[in-house]
Amino acid sequence: MKNNYKKIMVALVTFLSPFAVLSQASAATGSQQLEITPTSLVASFDKGTTSTETITVINPGTVGNDIKIYATPFSVSGENYSQNFNPIPNAENVSNWFSFSKSIYHIDAGQTLEIPYTIKVPSSALAGGHYATIFVETNNSANINGVVIHDRLGSIAYLTVNGPVKISGNFLSWSVPYLQRPDLTASVRVQNTGGVHFQSTLNATIQDVFGSTKYKFYTQHEILPQTIRQISPVWPKTPSFGLYKISGSIQFLDQTVKLPGKYVLVMSSFVRMIVLILILLIAVWIVVKIRFSGGKGSQMMSKLTNKKTVKKAAPKKKLKNKKTVKKSKK
Amino acid sequence: MNISIKNLKRSIFGLISITSIGLMGIASAANAYTSSTANTITVAVNPIINISDGNSGTTTLSAITPTGAGRMSSATDALSVTTNDVGGYTVTIQMAGASNNLVSGSNTLAPSAATTAVPAALVVGSGTAAPTGAWGFCVPSASGNGTYTTTFVTCDGANSSVAMTAGKYAPVPIAGAPFTLFNTSSSSVGTYATTVTFAAAVNNGQASGTYTASVVFTAIAT
Fold first, then answer.
1. What's the rounded Cα separation, in Å, for the pair B44 and B35?
2. CATH code, domain with B74
C-alpha cells in the first residue's frame, strides 16, 4: 500500500513539475514592449492643405497595454543634436498641426494597430522646414510601491511647406585624431545655411595598412535649417592595437564631398602601458649596459670627446700662431 | 513516274517544312534565351524602433521597515531598445510629470540630493531628522560604440529593506529635462540593453504608505 502511494506521488510530481517550470518561465519573461514604424516622416505640403498619415504600433510583448498618442514640438541644440520636445517661446508650435481621432488605445499582446492622424498645414505657414514628434507611450497607472514604467517611442516629422525657400549647406570639417583608444572614431561636420532640412548620407571605410577593408560605416541624417550637425563614424569593437586608414564620402544637396584618407594609430590603455614598460626597460638596459660594460663604454666616450677636443683645438692654435706671425712681421 | 516525282516533291517540301519549323523553334528558343531581361528584385525594409522592459511596466520595491539609521530597498528593471534605423537613436529617462517625488497621497518621498553628473549614495537623516527619505536610479556604466552614461560605474542589485548601501543614485529628472542614457549615430548598434536599478531609503520620520511615481524611458531614432 505504502509503495503504491509513493509511486502515485512520484508520478504526480513527475507530471506536474514541467508545468511548474513553464509557469515560472512565463512569469519571468512577461515584458512590456512597444514597436513603431515609421521612425520618421519626411513629407512636403502646400499651405492650407490637410493630409492623413498613419503610424503603425506593434505590441510584440506578452502583456497588453493602454497606449497614448500625441505630438510635441521638435528642435535640437548643439552640434550633437540634443533633442528638445518642449515648446520654444515665440516660436511656432508645429505639434498644433497634428490631430488624432483618439488619444488612448488598447493594444493586446501580439496585436498591430494602424493609428491614423491628420496634419493640417495652416495657410499662414511660412515656406520651409517645420518639425514635430509623434509619441506613442504606454499608459500604465498601477498603484504599487515603487516605479511605474512608461515606455515611449518617438517618430520625428520633418515637414516641408512648399514655397520659395533658400536651400543651401556646407561641408565644414573632417577630423580624425591620429592616436586613439578603441573604438576608432572620426568626425564630420555639415552645416545647413538654408531654410529647410536636407538629408546627408555618410559612407566611410576603414582599411588596414595592407589595404584590406576592416569595416564599412553608413548612416543617413537629416540636417535641420541653420544648424551644424556633427556625425561620428565609429568602428565598433576596434582591435586593441593597429594602424588603420579611414576614408569616405558625404553626400548632401546633390554634392559629394570626398573625405580624404587619414591614418589612425589605435592603442588601448593596456597596449599603451605595455609600450611604456618596454620603453622603460630599454632605457634601463642601455644605462646598465653603459655602467657595467667594464669601463669600456666610458673609455670610448672619453676617447671620442678627446678627439673632438683635439680636432677643435688644433685650428685655434694655428690661428693664434698665424696671428703671432703676422704681428711679428709687422 | 509522275506519281513518284510528285511524291519526291512532297517529301522534299515536307522535309523543308519540318526543318524550317524546327529551325524556327530553335531560333525562337535561342532568341528567348538571349533576350531574357534581368529581373530586379526590390524589397523595402521599414525602419522600426522597439522598446522593452522586463517588469511588465512596474518596478516594485520591497516594503521597507525603517530604522533611525535608515534602511533601503532596491529593484531592477531590464531595459532594451532595438532599431534598424540607419541614423542611430537616443535613449533617455525622465519623470512623467513636473515633480520627481515618490508620492503616497499627500506625503512625498524626496529624490536623491545628488545629480546625474555626480551620483551619490542615498542619504537620510538620523532618527526622524530630514531628509526622511530619498530615492533615485542607477544605470551601470558601459562602453562601446555609441555614447553611454558612465557616471554611475556599478549599481546595486535587488535589496529588501537592508542597511544603507554605498550604491550611487541620481534623481530622475523631471519631464522636459531628460537624462541621456545612450545615443549613437551608428547603424551598426542595433540594440541597447541595460539594467536600471531604482532604490528608496527612509528613516523613522517617513510617513508610512505606498509610494509611487511614473518614470518614462524614451527611445527615438535620430
1. 28
2. 2.60.40
